[in-house]
Design goal:
It is built from 7 helices and 13 strands. With about 280 residues, the chain is of the alpha+beta class. This is Class II glutamine amidotransferase.
Length: about 280
Amino acid sequence: MCRWLAYSGESLHPSALVLDTAHSLVAQSLNSPLGAETVNGDGFGLGWYPMGAMGDGRAGVPALFRSIEPAWWDENLRELTQAIETELFFAHVRAAAGPPIQQTNCHPFRHGRWLFMHNGALAEFHRYRRDLMLELDPELFPLIRGTTDSEVLFHLALTLGLEQDPIAAVGRAIRRVEDAGRAHDVPQPMQGTVAVTDGATIWAFRYSSSGRSRSLFHSIDIPSLRELYPDFERLDTFGPTARVVVSEPLTDLPGAFVEVPEATAVIIGPGGDFRQEPFLAAA
């Protein structure tokens, strides 16, 4: 379907992860060993929080760059990721599963200070799309600009309280998808991994109705990595609180990435705070 990564930690150039690792996100866009599709060339997106944005009157509103070009082809992506410095960013490469290749269908999606991205699909979404659209907050309904199931899922979570309690809201949105799908004889409607952030905390979810979700991993902490690999100079790029959540590992270093279990939420907070917890027992 797609591949994505979410970074939180000390400021860096996104190119350090999007371009420069052995299995960078751009490399995965062309060759994704763990993906449902090997090639993810139907567009990409980068969402980031500019340094100092919280103090310049923008209330932490993220910047967004999306394109329908393949990530490996777009020179602007290389230029931007090498020029930007940020403490938190999302990056996504897309493999279209039905909705057309257009900029408004590229992830991440943005609402106010929030970013959202998804890898997977709502099975046979066309059968219950109308039902979910009618449940959206009337003020959010006209803000949907694309045609993907992912954008509807994001706005459904917003409707159900994302800004107050992200874990509960994403859970309620997924349960509503499952109810709507099963009402239309779709037995396993939800598939995928989801990431959402308010610019301070990242919440990432691995869940599917079938219990066989798309792959998801998180990095171990940098101090532990340095103990394992004291001579690996590339680790000097990252500060002590740096963490990533990724669709698949960015390096072959043993122990650097840990698979996120099924039906689990990963939370990365400010200052390197990290935890994971169960998320939605399989339905």
